[in-house]
């Protein structure tokens, strides 16, 4: 998602970026003191952290503001800490899915695999890449809570924030496992797809960051409900939009080859809806192509036509509209501080707009 | 390491075990609420946590007592949290090393691989096992600091403990990377082997747990030096003993097939000393067999004879003796509270004794 200069994501981006840079710089010094050979570890980690939309920090920040928190410097490192968790999730996800690229660049394990190849080391380059990526993800996960605890917010506030912070970590990892499980089970149900989306994306990307913001401001009990209503609806809408972009999106904007999610066989709601709505022959054809790593552009076009023709795309769009309406209604709550309400409304548009 | 009933490890074991059980029970409920299919995740995690010597919690506890901390209930969950970090390290290590067993039982990724096979799911069973193990390790890592922060110790004490706690996590992951790197570089130097041991084992197993205990008791600045002197010396001695057991140990006690470290090609100090001390022909023979997964018992015996004959075993034993003497001298410091001094002395014996 790109943003206009005045967007609520841009509002936090510069401060979040500089907190990440400063924290990373200290960790770089610490690692290089242990051994100069750790430089490639740091470089891979920095490359991963340089990208990203800062969406979770933005929701954390606006969740804090919506709960009456002020624009103080200490909220930024606390919010930025979520980017390290996200870096861990992406790095490990790419190992698990065996994905070669991330945002158009080599995935972390590919970077280290290439280092192994270039260096003429012994053993398996792929194994070295994967092992390194596991450890780099672990570092990111450890550094996430290190940055959170070290943000400088009062210890009591940090303690209050731990409840949603901890729940979020468990939920995203459980969601990833369920996602993997649905893939190997070949699950095709709309319900299974929605459950994975709920834990892996909706709660993790939006609801929990908002909860953390509210808890840090000491208002988790009052705001949990309204932020959940807004966050889970918007979270699912955001993921649905992302899934549609994975199939219909412009490679220049997604950073992935066109139709890549179809090649990977990702079990999205669009897939579930297509298999449910298409005529038996069409569904069988779609199912046969799904997950074929060698899909031609023509077949990708054919699959798109099937998803569109049977009404699956339209069903997903209607669902997005429904969730957007839910999220919008949730914002009417008088519990949310005014200065945050319009930012949270803008975030709905930014997270779900058709064109990016 | 086994312990007599009155050992300083046994002193903490029951309380540490019950803290782990209680914490795990709550997490089990949380996971099963997300999805009943997460049961195997919990079972794998519980199996991993059921084993283990509780060595790190013991050093954390006695570090706390040595710094004047009392025998209060809140120190136990803080100390027990280190077992979750260790569970993460072992689970991920087994994926990285592709080790099928851990303590004589299937490694975590093998458990989940078997679940995949039994269930007749699609896709790669090995891939599913590895992916699951990555996520289960991540859960353990997140739960480690969750348990630490939730121990009930005063927030200021927990903040003080974060410095060594955070340093420890970075060090152990950096140490694992360096270990992997030395393997693929085919490093044979005594120095490289000692550096890996320093970060991956000595600091992580003994020095940092002691530091955390001292910091929680508010006495990190005074005690850091003496605990480092004791901890790094004993930590290296402990790892050397472990390495010798990996080659010369009784499979019944190590839980690994005899000579398994030789089959894995583990670059230990014993290996470095052997390659450095043996005659050229013998060193070449040893090097040729090292890392051969199909080593016969006869060849294992031959390699043992080579390591013994050239004086490498004796050199390692002398080194252990030297480190034990250093650790013992460090305990003379009047900074260490009397009630902990004899426990820390017993821990030297427990961690480095030849026969277990």
UniProtKB/TrEMBL annotation, chains A, B:
CDD domains given for it? Trans_IPPS_HT
**EC number(s) stated in the UniProt entry for this protein:** 2.5.1.1, 2.5.1.10, 2.5.1.29
Domain of life from the UniProt record: Bacteria
- List GO molecular-function terms, semicolon-separated: (2E,6E)-farnesyl diphosphate synthase activity; dimethylallyltranstransferase activity; geranylgeranyl diphosphate synthase activity; metal ion binding
Required co-factors: Mg(2+)
Picking any one GO biological process from the record gives: isoprenoid biosynthetic process
Q: Which UniProt keywords apply?
A: Magnesium, Metal-binding, Transferase
| Pfam families in UniProt | polyprenyl_synt (PF00348)
The entry assigns this protein to a family as follows: Belongs to the FPP/GGPP synthase family.
**What protein name does the entry list?**
Geranylgeranyl diphosphate synthase type I
Per the UniProt entry, what species is this protein from, by scientific name? Nocardiopsis mwathae
């Amino acid at each position: 998602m790109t943003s206009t200069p005045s967007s609520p994501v841009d509002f936090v981006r510069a401060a979040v970026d500089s907190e990440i840079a400063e924290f990373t710089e200290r960790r770089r010094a610490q690692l290089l003191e242990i051994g100069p050979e750790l430089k490639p570890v740091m470089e891979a980690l920095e490359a991963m952290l340089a990208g990203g939309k800062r969406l979770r920090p933005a929701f954390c920040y606006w969740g804090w503001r919506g709960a009456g928190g002020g624009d103080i410097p200490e909220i930024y490192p606390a919010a930025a800490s979520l980017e390290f968790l996200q870096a861990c999730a992406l790095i490990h996800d790419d190992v698990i899915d065996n994905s070669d690229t991330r945002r158009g660049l080599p995935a972390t394990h590919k970077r280290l695999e290439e280092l192994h190849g270039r260096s003429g080391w012994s053993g398996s380059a792929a194994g070295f890449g994967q092992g390194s990526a596991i450890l780099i993800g672990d570092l990111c996960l450890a550094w996430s809570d290190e940055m959170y605890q070290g943000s400088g917010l009062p210890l009591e506030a940090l303690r209050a924030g731990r409840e949603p912070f901890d729940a979020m970590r468990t939920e995203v990892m459980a969601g990833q496992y369920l996602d993997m499980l649905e893939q190997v089970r070949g699950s095709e149900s709309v319900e299974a797809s929605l459950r994975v989306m709920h834990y892996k994306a909706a709660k993790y990307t939006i609801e929990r960051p908002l909860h953390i913001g509210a808890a840090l401001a000491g208002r988790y009990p009052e705001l949990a409900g309204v932020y959940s209503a807004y966050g889970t609806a918007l979270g699912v809408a955001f993921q649905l939009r992302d899934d549609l972009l994975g199939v219909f999106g412009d490679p220049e904007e997604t950073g992935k080859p066109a139709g890549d999610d179809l090649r990977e066989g990702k079990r999205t709601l669009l897939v579930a809806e297509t298999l449910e709505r298409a005529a038996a022959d069409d569904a069988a054809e779609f199912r046969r192509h799904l997950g074929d790593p060698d899909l031609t552009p023509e077949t990708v076009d054919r699959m798109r036509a099937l998803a569109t023709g049977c009404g699956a795309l339209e069903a997903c769009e209607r669902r997005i509209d429904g969730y957007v309406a839910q999220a919008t209604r949730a914002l009417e709550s008088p519990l949310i501080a005014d200065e945050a309400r319009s930012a949270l409304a803008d975030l709905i548009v930014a997270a779900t707009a058709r064109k990016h």
